[in-house]
Design a protein that fits this description.
The protein is mainly beta. The chain has no helices and 11 strands. Helix content is 0%, strand content 50%.
């Protein structure tokens, strides 16, 4: 599986960004999960959001609830992350990922099988 993330950049606090991740190399089916994590310098990788490929069921990390929305386009094999009301603490490298076992703990980085290269998001105060 190859994952290509895009859409990062520099934005002022309170602004919005939309990240997109294109997935290829596999025919995804009902047990796949697509997600986003982030990692700030000196910190552990943090779960942001994930969605079940087949149904669109979603889970969000605490920092993303109410501000971020994850969505999957099954026809295009893409997973987007709409980020609103951005804060300086959202500054991090954002990674898209694929989990091939939907019954796993989605918030656990070890549950995820494939990772994209990351895209930088910087929120200025």
């Amino acid at each position: 599986v190859q994952l290509q993330a895009s859409g990062g950049g520099l934005v002022q606090a309170g602004g919005s960004l939309r990240l997109s991740c294109s997935a290829s190399g596999r025919t995804f089916s009902h047990h796949y999960v697509m997600g986003w994590f982030r990692q700030a310098p000196g910190k552990e990788r943090e779960f942001v959001a994930a969605s079940l490929w087949s149904t669109g069921y979603t889970q969000y990390g605490h920092s993303a609830m109410g501000r971020f929305t994850i969505s999957i386009d099954n026809a295009k094999n893409t997973v987007d992350l709409q980020m609103n009301s951005l804060k300086p603490e959202d500054t991090a490298t954002y990674y898209c990922a694929v989990n091939s076992y939907s019954d796993s703990d989605w918030a656990d980085t070890t549950s995820w099988d494939y990772w994209g290269q990351g895209t930088q998001v910087t929120v200025s105060s």
